[in-house]
Amino acid sequence: MKLPDNNGCFRMRPYLFTFYILLLSFSLFAQDDRPVRLRYESYSIGLGTDNVYDSYLSPLKYKGLNVGLLCEKMKMLDGKDGNFSFQRQYFVDLSQTQNRTETASNLTLFAEGDYAVFYRFNLNEKFQLFAGPQAGILIGGIYNNRNQNNPMSVKMNLNLGLSGIAAYKLMLKSQPVRFRYQANLPAVGVLFAPQFGQSYYFLSDNENTFFASSFHNHLTFKNILSVELPLNRITIRATYVNSFYQTKINNLLTQCYSNTFYVGISKNFYTVKAGKKDNKNHSTIFK
Amino acid sequence: MTSPSTVHRSPFTIHRCIAPAILSLLLFSCIENIEEYSNNPRGNFEALWKIMDEQYCFFEYKEIDWDKIYSEYSPQIKNNMNQEALFILLNQMLQELKDGHVNLYTPFDIGRYWKWFEDYPDNFDADLLENRYLEPDYGIAGSFRYKILDDNVGYVYYGSFTNAVGNANLDYIINKMKDCEGIIFDVRNNGGGSLTNVDKLVSRFINEKTLVGYYQYKTGKKHDDFSELKEKYIEPSKRLHCQKPVIVLTNRRCFSAANEFVNAMRYCPNVRILGDRTGGGGGLPLSSELPSGWSVRFSACPNFDADKQQIEFGIDPDIRIDQLPSDAANGKDTLIEAARELLKKTEG
Predict the structure, then answer these.
(1) Closest CA–CA distance from residue B206 to any residue of chain A (Å)
(2) Mean per-residue pLDDT for B157-177?
């Protein structure tokens, strides 16, 4: 077999090489021309109070402390003006609550993922509004340590709804302090619910455990208020989350209400792709 | 005067706020107001009566007029009564239900209804069993005590369905007794436990998927709000099966899951039930609580046999036998002896 005589080098035909160089130059030129769109990410841990009522488990309200994790990611979507963005929010909330005589306790765990597409309204240099549809999934349950054949109320929801953000930037000694309020309001979806007197022994046998949901049987909303303070190379984010979750179906009522304070960090990122360089011309979601 | 065309229109004019305000009002109107009963004798009485009224499952079957019971007991509630007096009164009210699955749990006592065995012969003597039949060389395989008796009849005692049913334990016992003339499976004084253990155990005595009964549950707060009857099948185990004649020994203290077990064993081939009627307990119990923190347990999901008959008040044996005093005096367990004779005849 005869090997090509190229002295160990890869040989490229001259016209192909010229085309490649032109293409590379064009893409670098185009990259330089456009601002780099930054991704926003935030991670926080929280502590707060939780109120839990679930008539499947008990006719009494339970109160106690909760701990939470909050992760939020946002990025601008493709488009000329960069006003469309995609947000992912993840909440994990774990609480231990007790009845008022402290003779029984509930362990509640909710994991929630919300996905929203926003359109940004730039009202002025400091104030922005975002609004858009949001899809969400919630999985969790409330475990009561006293009950025998009805020890747990399982929660599963798939939701479609609306979300809105109001963002305001305040300059404090030349440092931007960003305030943000977000409201999430699921409107329709599907939820899981046991029958009124159904033991968990028989949950797998029942075909009627998923139901269409709307405000008449499922009301959930979140109010999220945050402030972000730059500190050296990172930004500290303090967040207050007021969460309300209610289902009323099959004569069973669940109501969970929590107030949680989170502390964490947030940062804007950009991805450096091979062969491209940062042109220092950045575009952020929140001004 | 400013012309209309030059008036600056604020984005937050009143009419633009009306829609969000109405939406907010509508949403807040969807929030349920939860009212809890007071933690005093009246509040606890009302809460208990309501819990049972909405969730207890045997009002119609037992023909109990719960409203009438309210009328009888409500005037007796005084807010200055102490917790012991309240407990006694609430427990008396619950005993009207004649249900061994109804209990009131307090830090100082447990309210219970035990008439389902108290008024009947014991038909079981644990010391006699231990000294005359098991000692000195019986085996203990997990939750089971077992021995091959002198006449080559296998004997297994299982005292509580709260104790785990181990697959390896059952494999060993079934294999060990494969050459016996038959097996006596004794569940006397078994007060119940987990239904999962019932299924696991029965699956060793059937060779095909078997309909063993029906169940239903409440779908609403009215006394007759029930789901349709749902079939309850047990699948045969994929491990060792018992193919020998089996006699299940029962007495009035077989309750709840043990009652379910006896019911299911009736539909197994080569199985007969010997002894006294079981104590019943055919309603799967759920739990709730009172404002005082006292817990209450009550029957919520009725179970039926394969002929759709209630098993709340127990199951009659195939062979009805009581312990004879003369046998007891001679150190003999009448039920075990009768089962041995029956198995020898069956095998012969």
Answers:
(1) 22
(2) 97
Token pair belonging to A27: 């893409």
Q: CB distance from A103 to chain B under 8 Å?
A: yes
Quick check: is A86 in a domain? yes
Q: Where are the beta strands (DSSP E) in A123-193?
A: 127-144, 152-172, 175-192
Give the best residue of B38, B161, B215, B284 to mutate against chain A (max A CB count within 10 A).
B284
Give the least confident one: A36-45, A185-194, A206-215, B335-344: A206-215
- List A160's β-bridge partners, or say none: A135, A188
Rounded to an integer, what distance in angstroms lies between the CA atom of residue A131 and that of residue A118? 5
Token digits for A55? 């008539």
Dist CA B304 CA A145 (whole Å)? 29
Residue A201 above 50 pLDDT? yes
Complex-level ipTM beyond the 0.90 threshold: no
Residue A65 has pLDDT above 80, yes or no: yes
Inter-chain residue contact B293 with A61, CB threshold 8 Å: no
Provide the 8-state DSSP code for A8: T
In-domain check, residue A276 = no
Residue A22 burial (CB < 10 Å; 0-12/13-18/19+)? exposed
Helix, strand, coil percentages (3-state) for chain A, rounded to 5, are 10, 60, 30
pLDDT, tens only, B210-220: 999 999 999 99
Domain housing A73: 39-269
User: Which residue of chain A is at minimal alpha-carbon distance from B55?
Assistant: A197
Length of chain A measured in residues: 287
Q: What is the mean pLDDT of chain B?
A: 93
Tell whether the model's pLDDT for residue A11 goes beyond 50. no
| Cβ within 8 Å, pair B227-A195 | yes
Count up the domains in chain A and report the number. Answer: 1
Tokens of A282: 């950045």
**Measured between CA atoms, how close is A111 to chain B, in angstroms?**
22
Q: For chain B, which domains are there?
A: 41-115 (no CATH), 126-282+303-347 (3.90.226.10)
Residues in B touching A198 (Cβ below 8 Å): 217, 227, 301
Domain containing A206 — which CATH number? 2.40.128.100
How do residues B88-102 score in pLDDT, each as one tens digit?
999 999 999 999 999
